[in-house]
Write a structure and sequence with these properties.
By secondary structure, the protein is of the alpha+beta class. It has 8 helices and 12 strands. Helices cover about 40% and strands about 25% of the residues. The radius of gyration is 32 Å and the shape is rod-shaped. The chain starts with a strand and ends in a 7-residue tail after the last strand.
Protein backbone atom coordinates (compact mmCIF):
# COMPACT_ATOMS: atom_id res chain seq x y z
CA UNK A 1 0.00 0.00 0.00
CA UNK A 2 0.97 3.65 -0.46
CA UNK A 3 -0.34 6.97 0.78
CA UNK A 4 -0.12 10.05 -1.43
CA UNK A 5 -0.67 13.73 -0.64
CA UNK A 6 -2.92 15.55 -3.15
CA UNK A 7 -2.33 18.85 -1.36
CA UNK A 8 1.22 18.84 -2.72
CA UNK A 9 2.19 19.37 -6.36
CA UNK A 10 1.67 16.24 -8.49
CA UNK A 11 0.20 14.22 -5.60
CA UNK A 12 3.46 12.55 -4.42
CA UNK A 13 3.76 9.35 -2.40
CA UNK A 14 4.48 10.16 1.24
CA UNK A 15 4.29 6.66 2.69
CA UNK A 16 4.76 3.13 1.35
CA UNK A 17 5.03 -0.20 3.09
CA UNK A 18 7.56 -2.98 2.61
CA UNK A 19 5.09 -5.09 0.61
CA UNK A 20 4.99 -2.31 -2.00
CA UNK A 21 8.78 -2.29 -2.24
CA UNK A 22 8.85 -6.09 -2.52
CA UNK A 23 6.21 -6.02 -5.27
CA UNK A 24 7.77 -3.28 -7.38
CA UNK A 25 11.48 -3.74 -6.68
CA UNK A 26 11.95 -0.07 -5.77
CA UNK A 27 13.44 1.27 -2.55
CA UNK A 28 11.92 3.93 -0.29
CA UNK A 29 14.33 6.58 -1.62
CA UNK A 30 13.18 5.83 -5.18
CA UNK A 31 9.47 5.99 -4.32
CA UNK A 32 8.84 8.71 -1.73
CA UNK A 33 8.11 12.06 -3.33
CA UNK A 34 7.10 10.62 -6.72
CA UNK A 35 3.70 10.26 -8.33
CA UNK A 36 2.55 6.65 -8.76
CA UNK A 37 2.54 6.96 -12.53
CA UNK A 38 6.14 5.71 -12.62
CA UNK A 39 4.60 2.22 -12.43
CA UNK A 40 2.98 2.69 -15.83
CA UNK A 41 4.62 1.44 -19.01
CA UNK A 42 4.20 0.97 -22.75
CA UNK A 43 1.35 -1.54 -22.51
CA UNK A 44 -0.57 0.10 -19.68
CA UNK A 45 -4.04 0.67 -21.11
CA UNK A 46 -4.95 4.36 -21.56
CA UNK A 47 -8.52 3.46 -20.65
CA UNK A 48 -7.38 2.27 -17.20
CA UNK A 49 -5.43 5.48 -16.64
CA UNK A 50 -8.44 7.52 -17.70
CA UNK A 51 -10.69 5.58 -15.30
CA UNK A 52 -8.35 6.50 -12.41
CA UNK A 53 -8.28 10.15 -13.46
CA UNK A 54 -12.04 10.42 -13.76
CA UNK A 55 -12.60 8.63 -10.48
CA UNK A 56 -10.33 11.02 -8.60
CA UNK A 57 -11.74 14.09 -10.33
CA UNK A 58 -15.34 13.19 -9.51
CA UNK A 59 -14.53 12.41 -5.89
CA UNK A 60 -15.69 8.80 -5.86
CA UNK A 61 -15.63 7.00 -2.51
CA UNK A 62 -13.10 4.62 -4.04
CA UNK A 63 -11.63 3.87 -7.45
CA UNK A 64 -10.95 0.27 -8.42
CA UNK A 65 -9.21 -0.69 -11.63
CA UNK A 66 -7.08 -3.52 -12.99
CA UNK A 67 -4.11 -2.34 -15.02
CA UNK A 68 -0.72 -3.48 -16.24
CA UNK A 69 2.14 -2.00 -14.19
CA UNK A 70 5.90 -2.41 -14.35
CA UNK A 71 8.57 -3.22 -11.77
CA UNK A 72 11.95 -1.55 -11.55
CA UNK A 73 13.55 -4.40 -13.53
CA UNK A 74 11.08 -3.86 -16.40
CA UNK A 75 8.97 -6.93 -15.76
CA UNK A 76 5.22 -6.40 -15.78
CA UNK A 77 2.43 -7.48 -13.46
CA UNK A 78 -1.31 -7.04 -13.35
CA UNK A 79 -2.20 -4.67 -10.54
CA UNK A 80 -5.59 -4.65 -8.89
CA UNK A 81 -5.51 -1.05 -7.71
CA UNK A 82 -7.89 0.34 -5.10
CA UNK A 83 -7.72 4.07 -4.26
CA UNK A 84 -9.71 5.61 -1.41
CA UNK A 85 -9.70 9.30 -0.41
CA UNK A 86 -9.01 10.27 3.20
CA UNK A 87 -10.93 13.36 4.41
CA UNK A 88 -10.27 15.73 7.27
CA UNK A 89 -12.95 16.90 9.71
CA UNK A 90 -14.09 19.50 7.19
CA UNK A 91 -14.57 16.99 4.39
CA UNK A 92 -11.51 18.00 2.39
CA UNK A 93 -9.32 15.30 0.84
CA UNK A 94 -5.95 15.29 2.55
CA UNK A 95 -4.59 11.90 1.45
CA UNK A 96 -5.21 9.09 -0.99
CA UNK A 97 -4.78 5.57 0.31
CA UNK A 98 -3.95 3.09 -2.44
CA UNK A 99 -3.57 -0.65 -2.22
CA UNK A 100 -1.94 -2.75 -4.91
CA UNK A 101 -2.47 -6.46 -5.36
CA UNK A 102 -0.59 -8.57 -7.88
CA UNK A 103 -3.34 -10.48 -9.70
CA UNK A 104 -1.20 -11.71 -12.61
CA UNK A 105 -1.90 -15.38 -11.87
CA UNK A 106 -5.62 -14.70 -11.53
CA UNK A 107 -5.59 -12.72 -14.78
CA UNK A 108 -3.79 -15.55 -16.54
CA UNK A 109 -6.28 -18.07 -15.17
CA UNK A 110 -9.16 -15.95 -16.47
CA UNK A 111 -7.55 -15.64 -19.90
CA UNK A 112 -6.87 -19.37 -20.04
CA UNK A 113 -10.47 -20.08 -19.06
CA UNK A 114 -11.73 -17.68 -21.73
CA UNK A 115 -9.41 -19.24 -24.32
CA UNK A 116 -10.53 -22.72 -23.32
CA UNK A 117 -14.16 -21.69 -23.66
CA UNK A 118 -13.49 -20.23 -27.11
CA UNK A 119 -11.59 -23.35 -28.19
CA UNK A 120 -14.33 -25.64 -26.92
CA UNK A 121 -16.92 -23.58 -28.76
CA UNK A 122 -14.86 -23.75 -31.95
CA UNK A 123 -14.28 -27.48 -31.48
CA UNK A 124 -18.01 -27.98 -31.02
CA UNK A 125 -18.68 -25.99 -34.19
CA UNK A 126 -16.15 -28.01 -36.19
CA UNK A 127 -17.47 -31.28 -34.80
CA UNK A 128 -21.05 -30.35 -35.66
CA UNK A 129 -20.01 -29.52 -39.23
CA UNK A 130 -18.19 -32.81 -39.61
CA UNK A 131 -21.05 -34.77 -38.04
CA UNK A 132 -23.54 -33.06 -40.34
CA UNK A 133 -21.45 -34.21 -43.30
CA UNK A 134 -21.27 -37.76 -41.97
CA UNK A 135 -25.02 -37.72 -41.34
CA UNK A 136 -25.59 -36.73 -44.97
CA UNK A 137 -23.28 -39.53 -46.08
CA UNK A 138 -25.03 -42.18 -44.04
CA UNK A 139 -28.51 -41.06 -45.07
CA UNK A 140 -27.82 -40.72 -48.78
CA UNK A 141 -25.41 -43.58 -49.45
CA UNK A 142 -27.21 -46.45 -51.13
CA UNK A 143 -25.93 -49.93 -52.05
CA UNK A 144 -27.39 -53.37 -52.61
CA UNK A 145 -24.58 -55.09 -50.71
CA UNK A 146 -23.15 -54.31 -47.27
CA UNK A 147 -19.63 -54.41 -48.73
CA UNK A 148 -20.47 -51.78 -51.34
CA UNK A 149 -22.16 -49.58 -48.76
CA UNK A 150 -19.19 -49.84 -46.39
CA UNK A 151 -16.73 -49.04 -49.18
CA UNK A 152 -18.71 -45.98 -50.27
CA UNK A 153 -19.01 -44.64 -46.73
CA UNK A 154 -15.33 -45.23 -46.02
CA UNK A 155 -14.28 -43.35 -49.14
CA UNK A 156 -16.43 -40.37 -48.25
CA UNK A 157 -15.32 -40.25 -44.63
CA UNK A 158 -11.70 -40.55 -45.81
CA UNK A 159 -12.19 -37.42 -47.93
CA UNK A 160 -13.40 -35.52 -44.86
CA UNK A 161 -10.50 -36.85 -42.78
CA UNK A 162 -7.98 -35.81 -45.43
CA UNK A 163 -9.39 -32.28 -45.44
CA UNK A 164 -9.25 -32.29 -41.65
CA UNK A 165 -5.53 -33.09 -41.80
CA UNK A 166 -4.97 -30.19 -44.20
CA UNK A 167 -6.77 -27.85 -41.81
CA UNK A 168 -4.78 -29.17 -38.87
CA UNK A 169 -1.49 -28.71 -40.72
CA UNK A 170 -2.42 -25.07 -41.27
CA UNK A 171 -3.54 -24.53 -37.65
CA UNK A 172 -7.15 -24.24 -38.81
CA UNK A 173 -6.41 -20.91 -40.47
CA UNK A 174 -7.83 -22.09 -43.80
CA UNK A 175 -6.53 -24.07 -46.79
CA UNK A 176 -5.40 -23.06 -50.25
CA UNK A 177 -8.01 -24.23 -52.76
CA UNK A 178 -5.26 -25.53 -55.07
CA UNK A 179 -3.86 -27.71 -52.25
CA UNK A 180 -7.28 -29.17 -51.52
CA UNK A 181 -7.93 -29.83 -55.21
CA UNK A 182 -4.56 -31.52 -55.71
CA UNK A 183 -5.11 -33.76 -52.69
CA UNK A 184 -8.64 -34.79 -53.67
CA UNK A 185 -8.33 -34.78 -57.46
CA UNK A 186 -4.67 -35.65 -58.04
CA UNK A 187 -4.80 -37.36 -61.41
CA UNK A 188 -3.17 -36.97 -64.82
CA UNK A 189 -6.68 -36.79 -66.27
CA UNK A 190 -7.93 -33.97 -64.03
CA UNK A 191 -6.72 -30.44 -64.67
CA UNK A 192 -7.21 -27.82 -61.96
CA UNK A 193 -6.74 -24.09 -62.46
CA UNK A 194 -7.61 -20.79 -60.87
CA UNK A 195 -6.19 -17.95 -58.81
CA UNK A 196 -4.77 -18.40 -55.31
CA UNK A 197 -7.71 -18.59 -52.91
CA UNK A 198 -7.47 -19.40 -49.22
CA UNK A 199 -10.64 -21.22 -48.21
CA UNK A 200 -12.12 -20.41 -44.80
CA UNK A 201 -12.16 -23.47 -42.50
CA UNK A 202 -15.92 -24.05 -42.66
CA UNK A 203 -15.76 -24.54 -46.45
CA UNK A 204 -12.85 -27.00 -46.61
CA UNK A 205 -14.39 -30.31 -45.51
CA UNK A 206 -17.69 -29.91 -47.40
CA UNK A 207 -15.81 -28.93 -50.55
CA UNK A 208 -13.48 -31.92 -50.16
CA UNK A 209 -16.51 -34.20 -50.04
CA UNK A 210 -17.96 -32.51 -53.14
CA UNK A 211 -14.72 -33.06 -55.05
CA UNK A 212 -14.60 -36.69 -53.91
CA UNK A 213 -18.13 -37.30 -55.18
CA UNK A 214 -17.52 -35.62 -58.52
CA UNK A 215 -14.28 -37.55 -59.06
CA UNK A 216 -15.88 -40.87 -58.06
CA UNK A 217 -18.88 -40.24 -60.29
CA UNK A 218 -16.61 -39.37 -63.22
CA UNK A 219 -14.54 -42.53 -62.69
CA UNK A 220 -17.53 -44.85 -62.39
CA UNK A 221 -20.08 -43.32 -64.74
CA UNK A 222 -18.66 -40.24 -66.43
CA UNK A 223 -15.77 -39.07 -68.56
CA UNK A 224 -13.03 -40.77 -66.51
CA UNK A 225 -14.63 -44.16 -67.20
CA UNK A 226 -13.54 -43.72 -70.84
CA UNK A 227 -9.93 -44.22 -71.99
CA UNK A 228 -9.66 -40.73 -73.47
CA UNK A 229 -11.74 -38.94 -70.85
CA UNK A 230 -10.51 -36.00 -68.85
CA UNK A 231 -11.88 -33.40 -66.42
CA UNK A 232 -11.16 -29.75 -65.76
CA UNK A 233 -11.92 -27.83 -62.58
CA UNK A 234 -11.62 -24.06 -62.74
CA UNK A 235 -12.40 -21.49 -60.07
CA UNK A 236 -12.59 -17.79 -59.42
CA UNK A 237 -13.66 -15.71 -56.44
CA UNK A 238 -14.43 -12.27 -55.12
CA UNK A 239 -14.76 -11.08 -51.52
CA UNK A 240 -18.10 -12.85 -51.05
CA UNK A 241 -18.27 -15.95 -53.26
CA UNK A 242 -16.32 -18.74 -54.91
CA UNK A 243 -17.40 -19.96 -58.34
CA UNK A 244 -16.27 -23.43 -59.42
CA UNK A 245 -16.79 -25.06 -62.77
CA UNK A 246 -16.40 -28.82 -63.23
CA UNK A 247 -16.40 -30.03 -66.84
CA UNK A 248 -15.96 -33.55 -68.20
CA UNK A 249 -14.89 -34.38 -71.74
CA UNK A 250 -14.75 -37.74 -73.54
CA UNK A 251 -15.25 -39.06 -77.05
CA UNK A 252 -17.09 -42.29 -76.37
CA UNK A 253 -19.02 -41.79 -73.16
CA UNK A 254 -22.37 -43.45 -73.68
CA UNK A 255 -23.17 -44.20 -70.01
CA UNK A 256 -25.77 -42.19 -68.13
CA UNK A 257 -24.26 -39.56 -65.85
CA UNK A 258 -27.14 -38.51 -63.63
CA UNK A 259 -28.77 -41.47 -61.94
CA UNK A 260 -29.70 -42.38 -58.35
CA UNK A 261 -26.92 -43.52 -56.08
CA UNK A 262 -24.02 -41.84 -57.83
CA UNK A 263 -23.28 -39.45 -55.01
CA UNK A 264 -24.69 -36.42 -56.79
CA UNK A 265 -27.49 -36.23 -54.24
CA UNK A 266 -24.80 -35.81 -51.59
CA UNK A 267 -23.24 -33.01 -53.65
CA UNK A 268 -26.61 -31.30 -53.86
CA UNK A 269 -27.25 -31.71 -50.13
CA UNK A 270 -23.82 -30.47 -49.08
CA UNK A 271 -23.83 -27.43 -51.36
CA UNK A 272 -27.28 -26.29 -50.35
CA UNK A 273 -27.56 -27.34 -46.70
CA UNK A 274 -23.95 -27.18 -45.49
CA UNK A 275 -22.65 -24.27 -47.52
CA UNK A 276 -25.84 -22.35 -48.36
CA UNK A 277 -24.64 -22.33 -51.96
CA UNK A 278 -26.07 -22.90 -55.40
CA UNK A 279 -25.29 -25.50 -58.04
CA UNK A 280 -26.25 -26.47 -61.55
CA UNK A 281 -25.71 -30.10 -62.57
CA UNK A 282 -26.10 -30.79 -66.27
CA UNK A 283 -25.54 -34.16 -68.02
CA UNK A 284 -24.02 -34.06 -71.48
CA UNK A 285 -23.18 -36.68 -74.04
CA UNK A 286 -19.51 -36.36 -73.15
CA UNK A 287 -19.95 -36.19 -69.38
CA UNK A 288 -21.13 -34.00 -66.55
CA UNK A 289 -20.92 -30.24 -66.29
CA UNK A 290 -21.37 -28.75 -62.83
CA UNK A 291 -21.25 -25.10 -61.77
CA UNK A 292 -21.13 -24.01 -58.13
CA UNK A 293 -21.51 -20.72 -56.30
CA UNK A 294 -20.44 -20.91 -52.66
CA UNK A 295 -20.50 -18.03 -50.14
CA UNK A 296 -17.30 -17.43 -48.18
CA UNK A 297 -18.91 -16.24 -44.97
CA UNK A 298 -19.70 -18.94 -42.37
CA UNK A 299 -23.19 -20.33 -42.45
CA UNK A 300 -24.71 -22.67 -39.84
CA UNK A 301 -25.23 -26.24 -40.92
CA UNK A 302 -28.86 -27.21 -41.35
Amino acid sequence: MVVSDPTQSDDPIVLANQAFFDLTGYTADEVIGRNCRFLQGPDTAPSAIEAIRKGLETGQHFVEVELLNYRKDGSSFWNQLLISPVHDEHGSIIYYFASQKDVSSIKLARELAATEKTLLKELDHRSMNALALVESILKLTKADRVEDYSSAVQGRVAAIASAHRLLSEGNWAGVELSDLAQRELGSVNIEVSGPAIRLPPHVVQPLALIMHELRTNAQMHGALSEPDGHVSLHWRADEMFIWLSWEEEAERNTKPVLRPGLGLRIVNKVVQAQLAGQLDLAPREVGLKADFKIPLDPRPAK
